[in-house]
Amino acid sequence: MTVLVTGGAGYIGAHAVRALLRAGRRVAILDDLSTGHRDTVPDEVPLCVADIADAGAVGAFIAAQGVSAVLHFAARSLVGESVADPRKYWRDNVAGSVALLGAVVDAGVRDVVVSSTAAVYGVPERSPLDEAHRTNPVNPYGATKLAVERALADYAAAYPLRYAALRYFNAAGADPDAGLGERHDPETHLIPRVLRSASEGCEVAIHGTDWDTRDGTCVRDYVHVRDLADAHVAALRHLEAGGAGGAFNLGTGTGSSVREVIDVVAKVTGRPLRVVEGPRRAGDPPVLVADATRASRELGFSAARSSLRQVVEDAWAFERGRSGAGGL
Ligand code: UFG
How far is the CA of 99 from the centre of ligand 1 (A)? Predict the structure, then answer.
């Protein structure tokens, strides 16, 4: 039976496709290529270029491929863009997912693993954050991801559907051997931006140095994209074995400040960085660190590749290949 990966040509989806293939699963990808890259799709994997909201195309592809489970990554995922253009997020993330899930239920597909985010929590009341922390998103991106989680909870109560919503903290790193890494446009994430300062000499601003943290800069829980990818395979196995669904945090339990990230990039790259201190970015919580106990206990999740050093080394190897800065 085939696993359908929506957004399988995107950053995290493409890594999950590799993890599924390594686990011996048959895979098919649904991606409209609006932010995904066709060149990440392995030759042997069928690709349907369609919108997740196109229930006719989705239903036909599910039937043709013999799909028994879905990993759902396809989504808009930029916090700032979601504030500036919320209807894109409600349309693509919520209406798109509702249409997709309708096709999934109609086709009798039972198991669904979806991408969710730490942004569902909003401003943390405690750290590290476990899944019981109240959800109160402070931007449309987080609100739309939470809406999808709520739809899934209702569907799972009413229909023969099981789901896991994986709440990622800060996805980072790359699989340079597979030619996979972050290729967002525009790139707003910290690690690729600092790496670009190393490879192309562009300036990178620290968004605030007066936070109430150990060095005044924001603290985040960076988790290697390959660990995230493996967690999806584990979550799928867990559902297929009849395990309890719901929300699972994915993170390391250890936070790194913006300055600590910059220091590791400087060491790994050995290149000068053009760093300036700027004002705070609206909507940034000072500290976001995961308590991933549930995922490690129930899914066997392990942040094995997620030391900051390993994350940065892999992202740098990918960046050098991408930019031609120093070759590989
Ligand atoms: N930062 C900088 N300079 C930059 C870019 C980022 O100082 O040029 C800082 C940010 O202010 C933040 C930290 O680096 O403190 C990490 O920023 P990212 O943009 O890399 O990631 P975020 O923490 O903002 O976003 C992540 C996920 C989102 C998720 C969010 C939850 O990428 O999907 O966490 O708050 F919604």
Answer: 30
Q: Looking at residues 85-111, what average pLDDT do you find? A: 98
- Give Dmax (Cα) for the chain: 57
Sorted by where each starts, the structural domains of the chain and their CATH numbers stand as: 2-171+223-250 (3.40.50.720), 176-220+253-324 (3.90.25.10)
The answer on pLDDT for 188 being more than 80 is: yes
Catalytic annotation on 163? no
CB 288 less than 6 A from any atom of ligand 1: yes
Question: In the chain, which ranges are E strands?
Answer: 2-6, 26-30, 47-48, 67-72, 111-117, 162-168, 170-172, 203-207, 219-220, 222-224, 246-250, 256-257, 274-278, 287-288
Question: How many Å lie between the centroid of ligand 1 and the Cα of residue 190?
Answer: 6
Could you tell me the pTM of the whole model? 0.96
Pocket probe mutation, ligand 1, options 73, 168, 190, max atoms within 8 Å of Cβ: 190
Ligand 1 center–CA 313 separation, angstroms: 19
